[in-house]
Please model this.
Amino acid sequence: MMTAYTSTKSALEAMKLGAYDYISKPFADLEELKLLVAKALEKTQLVDENVYLRGELERRYAFDRIVGRSPRMRAVFELVERVARTHSTVLIQGESGTGKELVARAIHFASPRARQRFLSVNCGALPETLLESELFGHERGAFTGAVREKRGLFQEANRGTLFLDEIGDMSLPMQVKLLRALQDRTVRKVGGTVEEPVDVRIIAATNQNLAERLAQGTFREDLFYRINVIPIELPPLRERREDIPLLVHHFLLESSRRLGIEPRRISVEAMRRLETHSWPGNVRELENLVERTLALSTAEVITTDDLPLELLIPGQTGAATPTLPSEGLDLEAHLDGLRRELMRQALERTGGHQGQAAELLGMSLRSFRYYAGKCGLAGRRDDEEAAATPPTAEP
Model:
């Protein structure tokens, strides 16, 4: 705004009402005016960008990002929606890769604190002294290397949400300090004497069985009851197999967009293989596999040829026990298909070398060549090898 009055009071009133700055008239410096206008426009742009990014965060971590239609997941959705409207402390338990942080973010961005910050820390990834400084901050000179004062995550997340991931890995002395902060709703910086009040919602997560940790004496009972106000249990993927097709199609679309390629489809047989895998790495493992497959495959339809070997060999890590379909199956055809697929992948892994592929599968070279010919698989043979061992039929 432009004014003929240069009193501090009128300037402050104008800025309270939304003015960026003010210029007293008459003015002679046109460059000063241009600079002020440029700065005002820059601030407006930053505000607009902040609103846009906040909206993007809310969309990115909305409830529809958590995929699943199984009864177990529907129960989780209902609980999460109810919890999000409160300020209560939440404890999310589940194996690694089940989506604990995704659920925590969804709770935050659907809560009354959504416009404030969501900060997270992995409690098992930092030594005790560093974790204390990270959570509560420190004063200058509090320890070697503390060259300046630092605010902790509790202060930075004030009026927002703090996600304490892998809280089960926290040491007992650190558990005592965390418990005091949660009970008193105040924090004291490392090396400090002043208690600072904080208003932070805590969402904790762990992949451990805290009941066992309590029995072992490695997790404090009072802290457990302090954080276990609203427990949420996320099921492993192997216990909600009916969600796998939905997740696969979701990740196909997401990964295609991320990789900048056309969306792909997946064959019925390849999907069946994914459904029977036990997924020790849960949803994260499935997402990574889909992205890797999309990045390496050039076909429009993903088939079993594009899947990694460990999904096809019974007994490999993560391979589920085969089950007989209710309508039955042609066992010989099934075994022939499995043999052909494993031989193809063995050839691919060994650069087409038949001898090495046979060794990888525990087969004689003679048997490997017989079945390779029967299945129409080509492989590379050294001239000496071919001359010494002409192809023969399996006796």
